[in-house]
Amino acid sequence: MTKVWVLQHAHCETLGRIEDALELTGIAAEVVCPFKGQSVPKTMHDAAGLIVMGGPMGVYEHLHFPFLLDEMRLIEDAVREEKPVLGICLGSQLLAGTLGAAVTKGTQREIGWFPVRLLESARVDKLWADVDNSFTAYHWHGDIFDLPQGATVLASSDQTECQAFCYGDNAYGFLFHLEVTERIVQEMVEAFADELKEARIDGREVIRKAREHLPRLHRIGDVVFRRWANLVAAGTSVSRNVTC
Q1: Which pTM does this prediction carry?
Q2: In what order do the strands lie in the sheet with 103-118?
Q3: Is the residue at 244 inside a domain?
Q4: Structural domain for 71, as ranges
Q5: Disulfide engineering: 13 pairs with which of 31, 54, 153, 224, CB 3.0-4.6 Å?
Q6: What is the dihedral of CA 57, 177, 187, 199, to 10 degrees?
Q7: Contact (CB, 8 A) for 25 and 231
Q8: In this structure, what CATH number is given to the domain that contains residue 77?
Q9: Tens digit of pLDDT at every position of the chain (244 positions)
Q10: Could you tell me which of 222, 217, 203 has the C-alpha nearest to residue 114?
Q11: Long-range pairs, 185-193, Cβ under 8 A, ≥24
């Protein structure tokens, strides 16, 4: 059976709608939680793809979170073997950092619901072709990254120049959250309440807007994630082994 590794960094930041795409394509998700002390795989081995989820830590905090370096080595292995990679939020930052780009704190946090614009490069991209040129996405990040050398920027927002990029034929990083469900949004608001308070953002408003924007976001995400799953060699049945 075709399998992908999934690296998860917080209880609330799960696969969300990505899981639906994997199941529909017959792909097994092997979820590993390094933040709970579980070991990051040393190599891709028999896994056909890699998904790296979001989380509250920064790429540059590897002294406090040593597993981040292990994750970057696994990302490097996946890119070298030309296996599909999908980085979400922190995952996109780790992918960018692995490819040699600088990852730094932004001038201010981008948290909540803000428009994302697709660039011309997205019109011919494997994942983004024929998707709406702009849409309101869910954001929760304080860090940004430079575009890695050899990569192509696919989307931007008013605050952040690089919101999505691709590298080669199979590696993608999305700084925004396309995968979230209403439950994930609610759990993030609860888990990171201190961050919202510090940024003077009303979590109730974030949740309210989720009900407004999620239907369209789900339609777009289902297309994009299904296309990414199609990059992975799909099996004929599906299982999910979650170790955290």
Answers
A1: 0.94
A2: 134-145, 103-118, 151-156, 164-167, 171-174, 85-88, 49-52, 3-7, 28-32, 240-242
A3: no
A4: 3-233
A5: 54
A6: 60
A7: no
A8: 3.40.50.880
A9: 799 999 999 999 999 999 999 999 999 999 999 999 999 999 999 999 999 999 999 999 999 999 999 999 999 999 999 999 999 999 999 999 999 999 999 999 999 999 999 999 999 999 999 999 999 999 999 999 999 999 999 999 999 999 999 999 999 999 999 999 999 999 999 999 999 999 999 999 999 999 999 999 999 999 999 999 999 964 333 333 444 4
A10: 217
A11: 185/138, 185/210, 185/214, 186/210, 187/11, 187/12, 188/12, 188/13, 188/140, 190/12, 191/10, 191/11, 191/12, 192/56, 192/140
Establish if 243 belongs to a structural domain.
no
Tell whether 241 is covered by a domain.
no
The answer to whether position 240 is within a domain reads no
Q: How many domains does the chain have?
A: 1
Cβ burial 222-238 (10 Å sphere, 16+ → b, else e): bbbbbbbbbbbebeeeb
Which amino acid does the sequence have at 13? E
Catalytic residues: 89, 177, 179
The amino acid that residue 110 corresponds to is E
